[in-house]
Amino acid sequence: MQMQMQSVNGLQKDKKGSIKHKQNFIEGAVILTIGMLLVKIVGALFKIPLANIITENGMGYFGTAYAFYSVVYSLATAGFPIAVARMVAENYSLKRYNDIRKIRRVSFPVFLIMGIIGTLCMVIGAPLYTKAVGNSGAFLSMAVLSPSIIFCCLSSVYRGYYEGLSNMLPTAVSQITESLSKLLLGLSAALCTVYFLNGEFAQYGTVLGEALSASDAALKVYSLAAAASISGVTLGSFFSFLYLFIYHKRKGDGITKEMYRMSPMPHKSKSVAKKLLLTAIPIGIGALAMSIATLIDSTLLQNKLGEIMAADPATVLQMYEGLIPKENLSDVSTIPNFLWGCYSNAMTVFMLVGSVTQAIGISALPGLTEAYTKKNKAQIKKNVESVLRVTGLFCIPAGVGICVLSEPIAKFIYGSTSGSNITAKILVVLGIAAIFAALTTPITSMLQAVGRMEIPVIFIVSSLVIKVLINYFVCSIPEINILGAGTGTLICYLFVTVAELIAIKKVTKANVSVKDAMLRPFIAALFCGAAAYLMSNLIKNIGLDIKLNCVLSIVFAVIIYAVSVLLLKAVTKDEILMLPKGEKISKILEKHGWIR
């Protein structure tokens, strides 16, 4: 009876017997979001100076390596982290604690094997892929990145395990550990590589002993520096796994010996492994499809740009007059990689929004799984609407802000370089696309939480076919070229968002109101975007620095947005109560009539 009360109240004991609180959806999301924001800040501190150190050419090599890596990584992990989290959450709600431990034991060797296979695929595929896209300078980056797949797979076991137990702290801390290692080691390696190799060329006219022209030397230095920066990524994945391994050894999983003893006997390992595979494979197919689309984008766009430069270089050169560096003008065959680097920089900003809402989806999974397992429709409705509202409150104003402040944001992040002007033009469309991309992440997680892993796969694969076809035709037009890449992305994620919203309502059979969840955040976001646009133009007319323009416009927009959210009562009392110190905050907001 005592153990039952602990479960009902969301309490559990740690390894030493002390009581600790099981995180609710909002608490978990806050932990993961804070962790994710720190990761992104650290990532910005890594990528912003990195882009300046290795230029758009180096970022092109960097982005090409990551495009192939993401496919292999998706294939290696194959949806297992989410499968582990869902299975753990389901068994926790049923008090089958011995099955929870069995899930972890079965998962570890599977992940290890997949990690080894993934690393071998990366090593073997590197020369073939770089030859296929005509970007041989990315080969070394791919080779250096390959070992990280093993460590990422092993880390995924622990992350999925603790996420299923509604403990988001290990995931957040491990991600921060990984990012800090990448920043300190990767950036240092890139800086040292550029410094010493440029010094060698200035003194001897060689790079690693090879005599080269100035333009060839610059491209080779950027290629080697990109690989050096990626070494920090690989080492970061190792330190992330090391932290999780030590955390589990020292802290355990919070389930006491008494809870294990009173739990039913676990299912056989073969049965657990089978269910793990059946749960993971559909998720993995969806993730793999997304990564393959990125790979196709990388291959298709660079090849299309190459064809344009071969058939009609004058149009592109005139379109980007004064924006293409001298080393690329001396060899026009390198311009596609430069433009791909600009697009990669824009995609970095685009993915910032979705990476934060990913935390919301991860945190929502255990609670929704429990509600669905117990067939509690009222709780399902409440969970789904809260997830949509919280996601919309963040992603809609963020996407609108990226769109209307594309130039200040691009120049704030990447400096007032020629490439940042091209990146800004791409961001106008990608800003709106970011809203829908960010919405799909938690909606997909909710469909997975209720056991319908196959539905997101169908929608994602369909949308990616649409994206590839649109980009193929639009980016083939010389007057549009790389600027059209965002169009396919926007339509792709718009389709997935609408389709998945319809599906979640039908699958759960709960009376979910998308309008009630999303309308107020949407209206508040429109005020936010208008404020950002007006302030940016005002500062631009005054003639202040573009970076100051970015900061002041964002601050003003955030203030207007916060006021709009309060006046429109865009958040509910239940959601406020789930926050730390929620009762105090709720009383203050209720006093002024700012919450429902």
Please describe what this structure looks like.
The protein is mainly alpha-helical and about 600 residues long. Helix content is about 80%, strand content about 0%. It has 22 helices and four strands. The strands form two sheets. Strands 1-2 form a two-stranded antiparallel sheet. Strands 3-4 form a two-stranded antiparallel sheet. A hairpin with a 2-residue loop joins strand 3 and strand 4.
Write the layout of secondary structure elements.
Elements: H1 2-8, E1 11-13, E2 19-21, H2 25-77, H3 80-93, H4 97-132, H5 139-145, H6 148-164, H7 169-204, E3 206-207, E4 210-211, H8 214-251, H9 257-262, H10 269-311, H11 313-319, H12 326-329, H13 335-373, H14 377-404, H15 406-414, H16 418-449, H17 454-474, H18 485-508, H19 514-542, H20 546-567, H21 573-577, H22 582-591
Antiparallel strand pairs: 1-2, 3-4
Shape: globular
The parts where pLDDT drops under 50 for at least 5 residues are: 1-21
Number of helices: 22
Q: What is the total tally of β strands?
A: 4
Q: State the helicity in percent bands.
A: over 70%
Mean pLDDT score: 83
Q: For the terminal residues, how far apart are their CA atoms?
A: 36 Å
| Helix/strand structural class | mainly alpha
Please summarize what this structure is:
Helix content is 82%, strand content 2%.
What descriptive keywords fit this protein?
globular; two-stranded antiparallel sheet; 4 strands; 22 helices; mainly alpha; single chain
